[in-house]
Amino acid sequence: GSIPPGIANLSGLISLDLSSNSFVGSIPPQIGDLLQLQYLSLYNNNMVGEIPVEIGRNLQRLQYLDLGSNFFTDPPRDFPALPLLTHLSFFYNDLQLEFPQFISYCFNLTYLDLSLNGLTGHIPESLFQNLINLKYLNLTTNSFRGAFPGNLANLSKLTNLGLATNNLSGTIFDSWERIPELESIELYNNSFQGSIPSSVCKLKKLRRLDLRLNGLSSSIPPELGTCTGLSYLALAGNSLSGALPSTLSDLTNLSELGLSGNNLSGRLPPYLIGNWTKLTSLQLQNNRFSGGIPSEIGTLSSLRYLFLYNNEFSGTIPAEIGNLQNLWVLDLSNNQLSGEIPAEIGNLNNLIVLSLFSNNLSGQIPPQIGYLTSVRSIDLNTNQLTGQIPDSVSNLTSLTSLSVYINQLNGTLPQDLGRTSPGIINLSFSNNSFSGQLPPFLCSGFALQNFTVNVNNFSGPLPECLKNCSGLRRVRLEDNRLSGNISEAFGIHPNLVYISLSRNQFSGHLTSDWGQYSELTNIQMDHNNISGTIPPELGNLSNLNILALDSNELSGPLPQQLGYLHNLYSLSLSDNQLTGEISPDVIDGLTGLRSLDLSANHFSGNIPDSIGKIYNLQGLNLSCNSLSGSIPFQLGNLMSLQSMLDLSWNFLSGTIPPNLGSLSSLEILNLSHNNLSGAIPSVLSNMISLRAFNFSYNDLSGPIPDTDLFNRAPGNSFLGNTGLCGAAAGLPPCHVVNPSNKTKSHTRIILAAVLVPVLGIALLAMIGYLACSKRIKERRGETDSAFMFHNSETMIWDKEAKLTFGEITRATEDFDDKYIIGRGGSGCVYRAELASGQIVAVKRIIIISDSDVEIPRINQWSFENEIRALTEVRHRNIIKLYGYCSDSNSGSMYLVYEYLEKGSLRKVVYNDEEAMELSWITRIKIVKGVAHALSYLHHDCSPPIVHRDISLNNILLESDCEPRISDFGTAKLLMPNTSSSSYPTPMAGSYGYMAPELALSTKVTQKCDVYSFGVVALEIIMGRHPGDWLQNQHIQLLQEQVSVSVLVPVPLREISDPRILPPTGELAHQVQLVASIALSCTRLSPESRPDMRFVAKQLS
């Protein structure tokens, strides 16, 4: 209820404390009649409205006024001062205007808290001139702007100062010695620059110094070591450089030290570590520290968090680390550590997370790892570990995630793995040399969701329990020797999104049950022994993007129902025994295809004209069939064709359609081994992207096109066409025939026309029969010699990219530095304005020679497929990736993007003038656009694309403020060669936007993007980074599991950007909904965050 006006009848009241109730409504003006009142607290209620002017006018004896944690708005401008007031709190309210004037004239104030409001403007000088008795001043989390208060020194009695999370800038005040009583300074999350003032080191009583998330540079001042009372020191997220001063060893009372996200370098001196014996949290991640980890680390017996990841530490992991028996999280990932994992690590019986991935660790995994009875996550991926996984791992009853991929491990897996670990969710053993059968209890608790064992030597059947894992989402078993009946090995998995069983020995038939996996986006079962027909029920998989069943023993016709797969963009059924005609009804429904491969089957009949309507098709392979008739002229409509058009080894007749010359993006054309006649159309010379072709063994005649491309082609590109002539090797020149020579020439033509077919027809028929009936087991990696020229560089271009690598080189004057518009850890970004007027952004990535770093050869095909997938991304809110070039001569890779002049969203949000033009409607539109873009990447691309680095910097704006996210999916392409330490390790996100689980693992998931989206959405609404606000929300180390359908209401007073008028009516409801959804996206537990499809639907 509300406070009754009748309270005024208590005229003798001196103290009124109504705090922590559920009062609503406004403060009754009659409260001003309590003339004797000295103490008034309405803290922590739900009251609203202005503070009645009667409080200031009448309660002149008031000494204590606490209105914190309500919904009060700004007091009237004529609100009188309270001369005896010593304590005033408006903490966590809805103040939106400038600093209330009356406060500066409450001369006896010793305590002032205005934090967590939306106050704007400058902090008034009068505050520091008049309130000289202040001991506590907290203005944190507002929108104050301007320079640091220059006359702060007037507050000589101050003990606590909070100016964090505002828009303050310039350098930090440097006369701290004039405020000798200070115990706490919090200036984090502003825009302060310059160096850390050395005068702060003269504050002998200082206990807490928080300067993180600013733009401070230079080095850490040695004088800081004189603040021997410091227990909390946070300098993270700045641009500090240099080594740690030796004087910091005097900070023996430190309990928390955070220096992450700087450019600090040098070694960790043992005497520093050895003196910080009270530390509970040591966070030095994301710097450039080098050298060994001191053994003295073992003396920090109170340590709970040790974050040293993403540095350049080398040497071995000290055995003394096993002394840290209170440790919860140990993350040494992404360094250059070598040697064995010390057995003493098994002493850490309170450890929850162990992350040692992306180092150079060798030797065996110690059996003592089984003593980590509290551990939930173990990530040892991307090292050089050998031997077997110890049986003791089976003892880890709390284990939920085990990752050891990309090592040199061998032997069999512990057969009891999973028996006593019912909560296992993620298992990754891929890219090792494991053998034997998979453990029978892997999914005994039915919690398994992600299971990857690809690229090993596993054999035998799949575990029986796998059939009952209804929560399976992602399964990768490819490149093993697994066997068994494909349909008996799996049950019903309604959540299954991705399954790859390629290159195994699975047999049996595909049953109709496979049509029930409604969430599937990817089915890859190629290179097995699967027989029978393709079940029509696969047509029910409406989300399917990739279907690869090639190199099996499938027979029968194509089911008509495959035409229902409207989202399919890759269909590969090559190297089977499929028969019948290619039905136009199937083709008509597959208009979204990018790749179609039906080669090496027994298809007959004509090529359907409707293939010419698959306008997004980039690769078409119908070779090695029994197709007849003419080449449909409609194929000339496939302007997106790029990787190949292969119709070879069929019975096609007629002429080559001239409009194939309009396929300007096509790189490979193969029409060989058919019955084609007539001339090679001269318009084929317009195919500017063509790099390889083959017209051999047809009945073509006349001159070949007179261009360098055709004239320089190998002679076997035209073999078996006796009527062709031209300048290419192996062809006769084209001569003008004189009348006197007609008879002789005619005779030679007749002889050639008769003798050559007679002598060669039997041989050619035999070759054709053998080539098309034989299994083409690795057809993608084989080409005729006619395709082997002009391979000094690799190019993958989208159809919209009407440009060449030469144009880019000329536009940037061979990548001159003056065209650089951005630099990053992986290379530079150039602005290239082409002769056509088109402007593109080009990211150049330097690759060292073969002896150092390059894309590993075994991953080249995968890498280029990733690039092709990214160029296929089409969405209104995603920046276009035009393509990729790899120049082996210069040792560089180039990613070519669409260019937008307006720039990033960050530039707009943090510019007051531009931000004030960013209306609430526009902000909601931006959030929705980003949500729909991420939903598309996560749920409509196959395989799904994880952005990895959602931040305001990576969201660009069009002129109408329509958002476009950039740099999607490319970070994971730059994976290091594990034998080299010189290659930059890709970072999974930007500081302040990274999901908290990335402090424990580099396993980037869609839920990491969801977290980053939540931060970005809140930042757009609040007009500032929501870091501290989120910290207040996340009050527990591990957030409880919360249903994704539950949204926590967020009061507008907390999240509205104070630079624009607050939203009202329906618009206010929409802003509040955005904030609530954004908050749900930032839950600490990845499992409790919604997915982006849910988010986009809610926002719509």
TrEMBL record:
The enzyme's E.C. designation: 2.7.11.1
Catalytic reaction equation(s): L-seryl-[protein] + ATP = O-phospho-L-seryl-[protein] + ADP + H(+); L-threonyl-[protein] + ATP = O-phospho-L-threonyl-[protein] + ADP + H(+)
Keyword Transcription regulation carried by entry: no
Residues the entry annotates as binding ATP: 843
GO CC entries: plasma membrane
GO BP terms, alphabetized: defense response; post-embryonic development; response to other organism
Keywords tagged on the record: ATP-binding, Cell membrane, Glycoprotein, Kinase, Leucine-rich repeat, Membrane, Nucleotide-binding, Phosphoprotein, Receptor, Repeat, Serine/threonine-protein kinase, Signal, Transferase, Transmembrane, Transmembrane helix
Record's protein name: non-specific serine/threonine protein kinase
Protein's organism: Genlisea aurea
